[in-house]
Design goal:
The protein is mostly helical. The protein folds into 2 domains: 3-53, Arc Repressor Mutant, subunit A, CATH 1.10.10.60; 67-193, no CATH class. The termini are far apart. It has 9 helices and 2 strands, in the order αααααααααββ. A two-stranded antiparallel ribbon has the order 1-2. α1 packs across α4 (51-64). The radius of gyration is 18 Å and the shape is globular. Keywords: DNA-binding.
Length: 198
């Protein structure tokens, strides 16, 4: 990407993240994002088809920039730390679930990470996931979709009037809850189960 396009993309992503921190994503307009980013509508449409798609790409880029981890539980915690840092953005993208482009990008990034995990640890998966590509795709989609649904439930806790825990108040508990709900084979590394060992 040429430097000018990169500057525009950076400005647009920064603008949509800042605006989504304060405003429900569904009410954001292209004109508002352009004003905030200091770019034209033509420039906007070279990068995204709408504010929600732009936001989805910005959040996905942040998740993709998270460090690679040797343990799936550590990667899960890093994801939750990211969600916590951007919790108002994610909550403004929910109605009551995440906007479709945001959810799709989140599931895509998680699925890519899970496929990479299975590539690095091929013996972890049981049959038929280990040898059948369709079964592997189904298991990965199930895990990614379930993780996103769990994150949505965690984010909604702050919307409940009587909620004891606001999103992010206990990142460790949220991480443990997701790991405990995961099939044990996902969490095995060199003979260990991450749910049992710190």
């Amino acid at each position: 990407m040429d430097p000018r396009a990169l500057r525009s993309r950076t400005a647009l992503r920064g603008a949509v993240l800042a605006l989504a921190e304060q405003t429900p994503v569904a009410s954001l307009t292209v004109a508002e994002v352009c004003r905030h980013a200091g770019v034209t509508r033509d420039t906007f449409y070279r990068h995204a088809s709408g504010p929600t798609e732009l936001l989805a790409a910005a959040l996905a880029a942040e998740i993709e920039a998270l460090p690679e981890r040797d343990r799936l539980g550590d990667a899960e915690r890093d994801l939750i730390v990211h969600i916590h840092a951007r919790r108002e953005v994610y909550r403004h993208a929910m109605s009551p679930t995440l906007a479709a482009p945001v959810r799709a990008q989140l599931e895509r990034v998680l699925a890519e990470g899970l496929h990479a995990w299975l590539d690095e640890h091929p013996d972890l998966a049981p049959e038929p996931v280990r040898t059948d590509a369709a079964a592997r795709d189904i298991a990965v989609a199930y895990a990614a979709g379930g993780t996103v649904a769990a994150l949505e439930a965690w984010l909604r806790r702050g919307d409940d009037a009587g909620a004891a825990v606001h999103p992010g108040d206990d990142i460790e508990s949220a991480t443990r809850a997701i790991l405990v709900a995961s099939p044990e084979w996902w969490l095995r590394t060199r003979g260990r189960d991450e749910r049992r060992e710190p």
